[in-house]
Amino acid sequence: RRGGREAHRRLPARAGVKAVFLDTEYDPGTLTLLQLAYIEVQGGRRVCRNFFFRAEAVEARVQRLTGLTPGFLCRVGTEPAAVREEVLAAFSGATLAAHHLNRDKRVLQRAFGPLPNRYGLCTMYRFARVLCLPGGRPYKMPSLLELCAHYGVSEEAIARAARADFGAETAAHDARFDAEAVCLCAQAAAARGDLRDLFH
User: Fold this and answer.
1) What is the C-alpha separation between 90 and 6, in angstroms, rounded?
2) What are phi and psi of 188, to 5 degrees?
3) SS3 track for 103-154
4) How much is the pLDDT for 43?
5) Burial of 200 (C-beta count, 10 Å sphere; 0-12/13-18/19+)
6) Could you tell me the pTM of the whole model?
7) What is the DSSP string of 27-57?
8) 31: CB partners within 8 A, 6+ apart
9) 108, 135, 166 from 26: Cα distances, Å
10) What residues form DSSP beta bridges with 49?
């Protein structure tokens, strides 16, 4: 099922430069893509898309976390091939930003083939040295929840943004909610001067 809206919000972008904030939900055993949500920002233009994908089986833990069951996905989902051109056009020449970008890219490449993005921004790796959380070498990789707390991005603000952009009520582990969280954290980080290189 396809869903999308266009919105026009101010983000720290130079005219003509494109960033795509995204999240995926997937089955970890097979790397089957179950949901993709992204927010494409270029200059003053902002385009939001959400897709569900058909799946015959979904790991029980994933079903509990996301609510994405085989019955739901077979009823409303589409095939990756049906939206491949649209997704790759959105990614083309962009900075892809996600909280665990390498993981998301593996899932997306399995579904769509090579991705035509220009740069990548993994907020998990990028902000480890900003948050300086103990327990890693040298720092623990922050969760998306910890990143939101650091930048004062509340669950209410994320849900409100997702409602405006996607026209849906969402919560954590919905790709729309998590993509909005990445976008809002990036916006807050850029405002603080912590993300000067996002748009290269």
Assistant:
1) 13
2) -65, -40
3) HHHHHHHHHHCCCCCCEEEEHHHHCHHHHCECCCCCCECCCHHHHHHHCCCC
4) 85
5) exposed
6) 0.91
7) ETTTTEEEEEEEEEEETTEEEEEEEEB--S-
8) 106, 107, 110
9) 10, 28, 20
10) 4, 38
